[in-house]
Description:
- This protein has a single domain, classed as Arp2/3 complex 21 kDa subunit ARPC3.
- 67% of the residues lie in helices and 6% in strands.
- The chain is built from eight helices and four strands, in the order αββααααββααα.
- It has helices at residues 3-22, 37-48, 50-67, 74-94, 103-126, 151-170, 177-200, 216-239; strands at residues 25-26, 33-34, 128-132, 145-149.
- A four-stranded antiparallel β-sheet has the order 2-1-3-4.
- The protein is globular and about 45 Å long.
Amino acid sequence: MNRRELVITSIYIVAVYAATIILQIYQPATGGYFNLGEAVIYIAAILHGPLVAGIAGGVGASLADLSTGYSIFAPATLVIKFTEGYVAGYLVSRYKGLFTRHRELLAGLVGGLYTALLVFFAVVYWSGTIFIGPEQVLSQPFPSMSVNIPLIAWIIVAVVLGSLFTWVLARKYATSWEPVALLLAGLVMVTGYFLYEYFISNPLTGRPSFEAVFEVPVNIGQALIGTILAVPIAGWLRRAGYSSV
């Protein structure tokens, strides 16, 4: 890794850290939290490849855990987010020639699928009261701040983001393979946290717990949101000439 790559990696570490702590939605079932860090990891994967994305994801996200009251997750986060970022960068660059035919049709199919998934998660998981806090004292059942977000607000957000996402793919700012690759990498993150919480440590019980399964859809949603934000942003940056891949 040369000096330029070190600088870029350092910038992305800070960006992952900031995106992770700026919005933390607490999950009472497992003591974990939803965040926007995946979006930055995926942008790094698309624009700079596996090593930058892996290091930025692992270091940035684990530092966020350590500094915001979630230190029990930090060791797992370092490994899981590094692997997720590396896999995302590898898949995007290694198989970038996939899905190059019938791009408009594929853009519509992939964009429609992501929009449908967003609406599904909005209806089933995201509407209602959410608990927000960059710090969480695990001896207390809930953080101090809660917000009620109605279902219609989530549906509007899902449709707007999904439509923008589809438009970016249709305009060839990004390939239809990229969101598929990112979601596959996201499943690495989902699986990693489930295994860690189930077999090693659940912060609420101090022992292995099947409650870890309740964070699976939360983490899938996190990967979904990360992808639907990262692909348009990375596409625009790449069109502007900002990329080293």
